[in-house]
Amino acid sequence: LLILGIESSCDETGVALVRSADTGVPVLLSHALHSQIEMHQAYGGVVPELASRDHIRRVLPLATQVLTDAGQTLADVDVVAYTQGPGLAGALLVGAGVACALGAALGKPVLGVHHLEGHLLSPFLSADPPEFPFVALLVSGGHTQLMRVDGVGRYEILGETIDDAAGEAFDKSAKLMGLGYPGGPALSRMAQQGDATAFKLPRPLLHSGDLDFSFAGLKTAVLTQAKKLGDELEARKADLAASTEAAIVEVLVKKTLAALKQTGLQRVVVAGGVGANRLLREQLNTACSKARVRVHYPELHLCTDNGAMIAMAAAMRLQAGQQQANTAYAFDVKPRWPLDAITAPVA
Ligand code: ATP
Ligand code: MG
Ligand code: FE
């Protein structure tokens, strides 16, 4: 099967082509991405209406590009997959509308994909794909969850954030240090020149005994520290960034190890934008090699939103026996959609 995947849930337009056979990990043929980061930068965050309009401009040219890159034509596409949710309603509607229009015009089925399932399965696009079952640490801009994953669609949430997501903690801390948007990569870059022990910041819920997270208090502690520094902040930015990054990463790593212990599983998969974080990868690698646990990541450029993960999730669902691809082309999007609300495909 040749699957065209479209991602438009937030501020990146992504399109990709994945080829799947009856068995074996589906293969990425081509993918293209347009990030709106520059457009939103002036506002310090994503402006939903601007995002929707820009997706409209980008999605078809990107589709043409991935088809050309893979030496395929629209007529070769067997299934059109799109991000059905969660995300910004208007942005999701663009991808859904284009997918359904293409499906109707081509007489091919369309399949709505859960954005977080896309992130979760994105490590299957890497050269070293994982095997089920595994513990997943999903750390994106809007979500922070530990999951037990037994197969496609078989997800059990073990713990999650009770307030801000890890990505949000990076973004908000970066913003109040004046490091710009998106804050994760900027804060991490700044942290490289800093001393991570310079400031004592809280490790929220580290010893809570469960697998939940909380990052709102950390952000407040960073704000308090920044205010205390006043004029000195500029000179101490790298130290504060390093201390913030260390606090977030320590909690993520320790809770992941606790999830491994609780489930008895021997494999971890990291997914979502924060999975690109250098310190998280270093510390998780060290901890996992000590515990003799395998750890898998998406490729660096596929940690944040992209079309490849959407095409891959659709391919794996179809391979696992999902039948209900939509040929009524009634597109409905789900701006709010918990990951544990989706079910396994039935063969
Ligand atoms: P969701 O998937 O939950 O709807 P999202 O799609 O906005 O949210 P992603 O695209 O997965 O999230 O990731 C974006 C987040 O990842 C941002 O918060 C960004 O700051 C963070 N991020 C990206 N690179 C890094 C990095 N190197 N270090 C830390 N954080 C990072
Ligand atoms: Mg993004
Ligand atoms: Fe995302």
From TrEMBL:
<feature type="domain" description="Gcp-like">
    <location>
        <begin position="28"/>
        <end position="311"/>
    </location>
</feature>
<feature type="binding site">
    <location>
        <position position="115"/>
    </location>
    <ligand>
        <name>Fe cation</name>
    </ligand>
</feature>
<feature type="binding site">
    <location>
        <begin position="138"/>
        <end position="142"/>
    </location>
    <ligand>
        <name>substrate</name>
    </ligand>
</feature>
<feature type="binding site">
    <location>
        <position position="119"/>
    </location>
    <ligand>
        <name>Fe cation</name>
    </ligand>
</feature>
<keyword id="KW-0408">Iron</keyword>
<dbReference type="Pfam" id="PF00814">
    <property type="entry name" value="TsaD"/>
</dbReference>
<dbReference type="InterPro" id="IPR043129">
    <property type="entry name" value="ATPase_NBD"/>
</dbReference>
<keyword id="KW-0819">tRNA processing</keyword>
<keyword id="KW-0012">Acyltransferase</keyword>
<keyword id="KW-0418">Kinase</keyword>
<dbReference type="InterPro" id="IPR022450">
    <property type="entry name" value="TsaD"/>
</dbReference>
<dbReference type="GO" id="GO:0005737">
    <property type="term" value="C:cytoplasm"/>
</dbReference>
<feature type="binding site">
    <location>
        <position position="171"/>
    </location>
    <ligand>
        <name>substrate</name>
    </ligand>
</feature>
<dbReference type="GO" id="GO:0061711">
    <property type="term" value="F:tRNA N(6)-L-threonylcarbamoyladenine synthase activity"/>
</dbReference>
<comment type="similarity">
    <text>Belongs to the KAE1 / TsaD family.</text>
</comment>
<keyword id="KW-0479">Metal-binding</keyword>
<dbReference type="GO" id="GO:0016301">
    <property type="term" value="F:kinase activity"/>
</dbReference>
<protein>
    <recommendedName>
        <fullName>tRNA N6-adenosine threonylcarbamoyltransferase</fullName>
        <ecNumber>2.3.1.234</ecNumber>
    </recommendedName>
</protein>
<dbReference type="GO" id="GO:0005506">
    <property type="term" value="F:iron ion binding"/>
</dbReference>
<dbReference type="InterPro" id="IPR017861">
    <property type="entry name" value="KAE1/TsaD"/>
</dbReference>
<comment type="function">
    <text>Required for the formation of a threonylcarbamoyl group on adenosine at position 37 (t(6)A37) in tRNAs that read codons beginning with adenine. Is involved in the transfer of the threonylcarbamoyl moiety of threonylcarbamoyl-AMP (TC-AMP) to the N6 group of A37, together with TsaE and TsaB. TsaD likely plays a direct catalytic role in this reaction.</text>
</comment>
<keyword id="KW-0808">Transferase</keyword>
<dbReference type="GO" id="GO:0002949">
    <property type="term" value="P:tRNA threonylcarbamoyladenosine modification"/>
</dbReference>
<feature type="binding site">
    <location>
        <position position="305"/>
    </location>
    <ligand>
        <name>Fe cation</name>
    </ligand>
</feature>
<feature type="binding site">
    <location>
        <position position="277"/>
    </location>
    <ligand>
        <name>substrate</name>
    </ligand>
</feature>
<feature type="binding site">
    <location>
        <position position="184"/>
    </location>
    <ligand>
        <name>substrate</name>
    </ligand>
</feature>
<keyword id="KW-0963">Cytoplasm</keyword>
<dbReference type="InterPro" id="IPR000905">
    <property type="entry name" value="Gcp-like_dom"/>
</dbReference>
<dbReference type="InterPro" id="IPR017860">
    <property type="entry name" value="Peptidase_M22_CS"/>
</dbReference>
